Structure formats: structure tokens, C-alpha cells
Prior knowledge:
The chain is of the alpha/beta class.
Amino acid sequence: MAVLSLKDINFSYGKTPVLKGVSYDFEEGKTYCIMGKSGAGKTTLLSVLSGLASATSGSILYNGKDIRNIDTYKYRSKYIGVIFQSYNLITKFTALENVVLSMDIASCKGSAKDKKKKALELLKSVGLNEEEANRRVLKLSGGQQQRVAIARALSYDAQVILADEPTGNLDEDTQNEIMDIFRNLAKNGKCVILVSHSKSVEAMCDESFTLKKLSTK
């Protein structure tokens, strides 16, 4: 059974339609790439999937249950991990502090010492060493900040990882390293859904589909 299912999703900004009749199933253990031209609704669809926006009509099922019947806070803080295009990290905090804060917000169990240990393990798993983990975010490169954002999304063991243009500002080598992380997450049972305009990113995913920009006439 699909972990996330889109059922005839429509979305409009006022009278302007952005998504029309979108249906798709997403399974655990796979990476997906959502493609489309600028304005086709890629980021909007990610917002709808994450519960940050509500579809005008249609439904989204999480493990067979309509997300409208799931507590919104619980859905967004436990089941879905979101990686934003701009990272959305707290820049005055260290990488480690950003991950620990995410665990606190999600009400993860464990002492402060346990959470710090887990956060450090997560950061190491995405390629950051202890010295880098204890740097303020502003002292990290774009690729390193992306790794922090991934570790943060993993900190409460979300089943689904959503990422908006996760490699858009990265060089090719760093892009490939980040994609390796996503593919390894899928191999370990996560469902990874990426929004991208990159054909090379699409080629590294298991499945892809393209959103068509709707006519405004």
C-alpha cells in the first residue's frame, strides 16, 4: 500500500487554478522527482503534501487515512520531514542545536544528553564531523547547510521526506553527494519526494512525474 496517495487534487489561488486533477501514489523505499516548468505548481504540491496548505478539493491519504482526519501538528512534526529550498535553519544556532531543537519541537523522548548524542549521529550520517556540527550555521557552506536540513528532517524519524529543490544551489559534486544521501534513505525504507527542475536529479530518482502549467485564459 502507498504511504502517501494523491486523489484528484485541485488547488487554486483565488480564481487562479494551479493544480488540477493530480493523482499519484508514493511508496516507501523509493525516491520520486516532481518536475515541471516554473509556475506549474511543484512547490504548491509539496506544500499540500506536507500539510502546510490545504487542497481546494480532492484528498491526500497517509497510510490509507485522510490527512484531514489526522492532527495537523502530529502529521507535520512526526510523519513528514520537510527540507525547504532556503533550508530554514536558525542561523544563530549551531548545526547540532538546530537538530536538537527539531527533536524538542516533535516531543521526542530522551534526555538532553541523549538528544544531543542522536543529533550528532545524524549529522555524521549525512557527512558532517563533530567540529562542523558545533559550528554556527552561518559558518557552514551551502552544501553543509543542506546536510543539516536533512539531518533535522530525520531527527524525529519521519516516514516521508519532502525536499524542495534540494540541490538547486549546489555544485555538481555536492549535488551527487546529497542525492546519494536521499537514495540511501530510500533504501532504508523512507519515502523520498523531491521537487526539482534538474534532469540529472530526475535521472537519479526511481520515479518521476511532470506537472503541466495550467492555462490562465
